[in-house]
Design brief:
Elements: H1 2-7, E1 13-19, E2 34-39, H2 45-50, E3 63-64, H3 68-71, E4 77-84, H4 91-106, E5 110-118, E6 123-130, H5 138-147, E7 156-163, H6 171-174
Antiparallel strand pairs: 1-2, 1-3, 4-6, 4-7, 5-6
């Protein structure tokens, strides 16, 4: 959603999560009440509304809530994507992501790093998986370091998302730990 705002030339700052305060039955594919919250300039509210975004004031029972992916990082893997969105990727953020991953490999925090592909304007998308003999909390600390990296939203789409495991179709890679 942040990328959608940025592509529409609407600055999206301070991304966070929330809930609309309504209750929903727990069924696969059903509504959850989860909200993605962004701070945008007041002069851009009309443009955001045209894209289907609503002001938080439209939800009287809404409140901020922890993002699900933050809670999900008792998990073993994360998909990472950092790519340019027209202009070139934010080189400083890209360098910090690579350095953070490299240190985690060197420290045996992750046992697998798979690059799914490279962006036309720089960057990559891939997956990292927790090592078997990693110290307690080392993987979650690594994820926090990745999430603390702020890429320029005017040039770069950046995300770190919890997944159960890294997906690959290569049996040679699956056998390597």
């Amino acid at each position: 959603m942040k990328k959608e705002l940025i592509e529409a030339k609407i600055p999206a700052k301070h991304a966070r999560c929330g809930t609309n305060g309504l209750l929903y039955p727990a069924v696969c594919g059903g509504e959850t009440g989860r909200l993605n919250l962004f701070d945008i300039p007041a002069k851009k509210l009309g443009d955001a509304s045209d894209l289907g975004f609503q002001p938080l004031s439209d939800w009287p029972d809404a409140s901020e809530a922890p993002c699900e992916e933050e809670a999900a990082f008792a998990g073993n893997a994360a998909e990472i994507s950092i790519n340019g969105i027209g202009p070139a990727v934010d080189e400083d953020a890209y360098r910090r992501v690579r350095k953070t991953i490299g240190k985690a490999v060197a420290d045996n925090v992750i046992s697998r790093f798979i690059v799914y592909g490279y962006g036309v304007e720089g960057g990559f998308s891939g997956c990292v998986q927790e090592g078997r003999f990693v110290q307690p909390n080392a993987f979650s600390d690594f994820i926090k370091k990745l999430r603390a990296i702020n890429a320029d939203p005017n040039t770069t789409a950046y995300s770190v998302t919890a997944v159960e495991k890294c997906e690959t179709s290569s049996p040679e890679i699956d056998g390597v730990e």
